Amino acid sequence: MESFPVINMENLNGENRAITMDKIKDACENWGFFELVNHGISPELMDTVERMTKGHYKKCMEQRFRELVASKGLEYVQTEVHDLDWESTFHLKHLPVSNISQIPDLDDDYRNVMKEFAVKLEKLAEELLDLLCENLGLEKGYLQNAFYGSNGPNFGTKVSNYPPCPKPDLIKGLRAHTDAGGIILLFQDDKVSGLQLLKDGQWIDVPPMRHSIVINLGDQIEVITNGKYKSVLHRVVAQTDGNRMSIASFYNPGSDAVIHPAPALVGREAEEAGEATYPKFVFEDYMKLYAALKFQAKEPRFEAMKAMETAPNLVPIATA
């Protein structure tokens, strides 16, 4: 089995740059995931984020989760559960407008730390998008511009905890899905595992690694690269022991950004015939469809957007 790709970003600044860029290219083409070390976000900041996130869960969310589990009788299920996930979450928005000041139960120190962390992650996301452009032969800034729309990108964070689960064979921490958006940056627990990706028909663990940031590519990158890079199915397997922290930040296109394959990545013959493999659409329309079909295959979503492209008066309708 190939080892999970780990990229040391310090090597981008020296004689190993070409080798490191090749590693990123291979990870994007063959995995859809990779793990970054020496990425420029300080271990001290990450330790503070982790400590405060775990403290907030204990103080404000753990009891609510227990009450939810009890109200639904989840500890006693006998058959596989398909309509919910064993997770406790809240969401922060950073761009285009922050909502951090409106989230209840966060103390001021935690708000400030999460704001600081988001600024660092935003910078890292934009750096990564330019590295992808370089590997794809696109001009610097192409992906950022493709994401921009009229108000800039959407950027937000899902803060999750996956508590110990008595029936991990029957309830997933998070059901299998691809991510709808652009590029995802994950700060995950380094002691409790659970994240898996599907590669060559096998579920593979994404290894917990202290102070790393896990990167994965969303559906919009697949469309813009015309399938050269693909979003990948992943899931969280609940554990019987340990509470797993997950802080996933999503750098996505602006709501009105028009997403389509980069002309430079569509074969000349296909372009002349008007046969780009992937559709052209407004990101917000894709998200309306995704909201109802998240846990289903991505291909029908792309086909639905293609149908809208040829019949622009259609509205995306989600069917189970």
Task: Describe it.
With 320 residues, the protein is α+β, with helices and mostly antiparallel strands. Helices cover 36% and strands 20% of the residues. The chain has eight helices and 13 strands. The protein has helices at 17-30, 43-72, 108-136, 142-148, 219-224, 268-272, 283-293, 299-310, and strands at residues 6-8, 33-37, 88-95, 154-162, 174-177, 183-188, 195-199, 202-205, 213-217, 234-236, 244-252, 258-259, 281-282. It has a seven-stranded mixed beta sheet. Strands 5-10-7-8 form a four-stranded antiparallel beta sheet, with no helix packed on it. A two-stranded antiparallel ribbon has the order 12-13. The longest helix has 30 residues, at 43-72. The chain is globular.
Give descriptors for this structure.
alpha+beta; 13 strands; globular; 320 residues; four-stranded antiparallel sheet; 8 helices; seven-stranded mixed sheet
> How far is it from the N-terminal to the C-terminal residue, by CA?
36 Å
With strands numbered from the N-terminus, the spatial order across the biggest sheet is 1-2-9-6-11-4-3
Q: Write down the overall geometry.
A: globular
User: On the 0-100 scale, what is the average pLDDT?
Assistant: 93
Spans with pLDDT under 50 lasting ≥5 residues? none
SSE succession: EHEHEHHEEEEEEHEEEHEHH
**If you compute it from the alpha carbons, what radius of gyration comes out, rounded to the nearest whole angstrom?**
20 Å
Total beta-strand segments: 13
Q: Which percent range fits the helix content?
A: 25-40%
Percent strand equals: 15-25%
Q: Output the structural class.
A: alpha+beta
- H/I helix tally: 8
Largest sheet: 7 strands, mixed
